[in-house]
Amino acid sequence: xxxxxxxxxxxxxxxxxxxxxxxxxxxxxxxxxxxxxxxxxxxxxxxxxxxxxxxxxxxxxxxxxxxxxxxxxxxxxxxxxxxxxxxxxxxxxxxxxxxxxxxxxxxxxxxxxxxxxxxxxxxxxxxxxxxxxxxxxxxxxxxxxxxxxxxxxxxxxxxxxxxxxxxxxxxxxxxxxxxxxxxxxxxxxxxxxxxxxxxxxxxxxxxxxxxxxxxxxx
Length: 218
Description:
The chain has helices spanning about 5-10, 35-45, 75-80, 90-100, 125-145, 155-160, 165-170, 190-195, 200-215, and strands at about 60, 70, 110, 145-150, 175, 180-185. By secondary structure, the protein is α/β, with parallel strands linked by helices.
């Protein structure tokens, strides 16, 4: 049954329950050689129902050879409109956080677990994360960062495939992929805006990440 048919029946007072099963990839990813090719694949993606609501995909932005990869959760309304991750007040705070450890935003690459905005900024669903996972792993492969900073609970849990609360993940060294890239977890800037008393903890996380990065370069 199509969405149009469902809406028609609903307008007549007929309640129809539709089970939406996780979508299989309908545009399998062809091996790409650079981020521009990958971004074009993402822009055409219809692997899950999120493509039905987006204005545009939010691939990511930054240096193609960045040593630091920052991974957040998913685009919000403003990101969906402009096509860039971490804009607005949360983006400004992220920029300030990076600057505090000597990094310009242009030096890092910033991406999200999901490339499309979930309706009403709800949490990503498991099958949506699964459908986007290949894009994220390709971004990591092409960028080859020396360290990954997972920003927020959902980004950290999705990236590391765990249900551990973010408070217990902080201060730990994790790794991602076959390359064993160091991963550090910290709070999302949007959360810090709501809970400024936690900024000191994020400062500690950033310095921990910087220490691991310097060790990896030694």
